[in-house]
Amino acid sequence: MLKNLWIRRLVTTAALGGILAVAVTAGCLHWVRSTAAGHVYRVDTVPSAPVALVLGAQVHPGGQPSAFLEARLEIARQLYAAGTVKAILVSGDHANWDYDEPGSMMVWLVSHGVPVSRVVLDHAGFDTYDSCARARRIFGVRRAIVVTQSFHIERAVALCRALGVDATGVGDETVRSDRRLWLRGEIREEFAAVKAAADVLSRRDPILLGRHETGVDAATS
């Protein structure tokens, strides 16, 4: 009898925990989508802004951007070529000297016609929250077009807007053909929305801060 009662209580607790987790996730996803609503565009319709913020992604050995990252960089190149932005802030992981996302992003952009003087590097964009927070607090960005994949763009825009950047966004769809990686990205967003909401509520500092950097000011002048 006691064993059965213990089992019923365990099952009830687990069920309530599951319901709570679903409710929290749904609430965080609603916040992401409602905050980003009306601020996500195509590359040819997005309103102009001083700077494009390109979020980092995997770089292969030798510095070649992954297909996902190259697609983001191509959108940024198009925005610059069309005069929609004056400069491009590339933000990614450079925690180890032999792995340099922003450096590889700069090399790709310059090799595809963007003047080096218009590319600004953020070497401490370790996640989306850090990239948005540092864009505002370190680089002084007040208005930007965020560039990433479409499954990620709502969260990126929502985070930047919550952190003081008047952000719009353009999401890439060209690498959707890699169904496995695309599906993994979509599933990841379900859980990442919870972290995003927690980060905004906590107002945590980025992993690395520092002095104000004038690179964006110079590149947009």
From TrEMBL:
DUF218 domain segment(s): 51-168
Superkingdom per UniProt: Bacteria
Q: Report the source organism.
A: Actinoplanes missouriensis (strain ATCC 14538 / DSM 43046 / CBS 188.64 / JCM 3121 / NBRC 102363 / NCIMB 12654 / NRRL B-3342 / UNCC 431)
Q: Which GO terms describe its cellular component?
A: plasma membrane
Q: What is this protein called?
A: Putative integral membrane protein
